[in-house]
Structure formats: structure tokens, C-alpha cells
Amino acid sequence: MNAEVEGREYDASGEALTFTLEEHEEIHVLHPQQIIAYQGPSSGRADRFMDVKGMYRKRKLIRAEMTGPCRFTAALPPGYRIKTVMLDGKDDLLYDFKHLFFYSQGIAMQTRVLSVKNMLVTRDIIKVRFSGSGSIGILTEGTVCEAALDPVEPLYVDAGSVIAYPENARLELTVYGNHLASQHMSYHWKMTGSGPVLFQAGRQNRRFERENHEDGIFKRFLREILPFGGVFIK
Questions:
Q1: Which of 26, 102, 160, 191 lies at a C-alpha separation of 20 to 30 Å from 95?
Q2: Phi, psi at residue 219, to the nearest 5°?
Q3: Which Pfam families match (predicted)?
Q4: Chain segment 131-161, per-residue pLDDT in tens
């Protein structure tokens, strides 16, 4: 399988990703409505309802099973990029379903039900874990960063920027720093454990741009002075 981004320059209106599959190669596209061009046998695409342990049955999530030989192009949502992650069968990262774009043949998708506290923060019910060897494509807002967890020393990551974390990680929703810092920052995950955490920079970049170009100085002053103003004043 080969996947190529159409147009290397970042475009706010969205990019496109062209896949080329050889004979008998197969990938699962989790956003089939984004496929805008296809070349190959009509039978090379089969859409199916997803049954993620029944959690999403009523929402009728559909995946497209694409089988080679074929070539097709999928549009990426505006503001998003694609990052391909290679899995070797030893991975234990949990991903947000909303970040997933495709996974290749040889990969199986499993689910993990979140705690009530995590549901309230992430506004989701489940996380997704992959097993097997192959590749997955994740949608990201800007640059993807990686940091290693430590069993004792915590890592603090903006809750809305986390893409994936190890299943063994211990999470606590919190803020940190002195009194003023903790009042105007967004909630963070305090993480300990072992393994890598993936997080994205684009969400914070857009907020920075909005605050500096769209918000007035008075609104910015309120956000920084009022307790938890960064959370409640958008």
C-alpha cells in the first residue's frame, strides 16, 4: 500500500490523500464519505456497518473496505493532516475514535469503555486499541509530538490535545503551576506510567491565533485574571 499527500504545502481548505493498493491489499477507511475519486473494479469497495461492541450501533458508523488493485483519493477535513503510525504487534496505545482515518490489513480494532469522569472530559464513551501488525492513519491538528511517561514523575498534557496514551497509564484531571497559572489554563491530564503519549499542537495554535487577532484586549484581560477564565471565556 502506498499513501501520498496531494500538495505538500499546508492548505487551510484541506488536503487530499491518494492511496494505491496492489492486488489483494486491503485497508479500512473509517470516513468513507471523504473518498472523492476511485479507479478500479467496482467490487473493490464494500461499505459495512461498524459494530464497536454495540456502543455506536445507533449512530450507524460505516467503514469502507477497499481492496486492490485500485487507486483512490480521500479528502482530509480542513485544518487536519494525516500521520501514519506503524504498528508491530506490541503496541498498547488507546486512541480517540475521532482521530482515526484508516487502518490496514492485519490490524484488528478493539474498544475500551472509559470511566464516567473521562467520558465527561473527552465527550466520548470509548477508546480504541489496535492489535496486530500494519499501519493506521490518524487525523491530527498540526504537528504531532511524543513524550515518554515515567512511573513516578507525572507528565501534564492539555486534555484536548491528547491523541493517544498507553493503556497502563494512570490519569488524573487537574491543573498545575502557581495560583494564577492554574486559574487560566485548560484542564490537563496528569499522567504516570510507561510508554509514549502522542499529542497535537494545532488546537493550541488556533486558540493563540484567535486570542491575538479576534479577541479584544478586555476579553483577553478577563480570561487571564478571572479564576478559570481560560476555561469558561472562549
A1: 26
A2: -65, -40
A3: AIM24
A4: 899 999 998 888 889 999 999 999 999 988 8
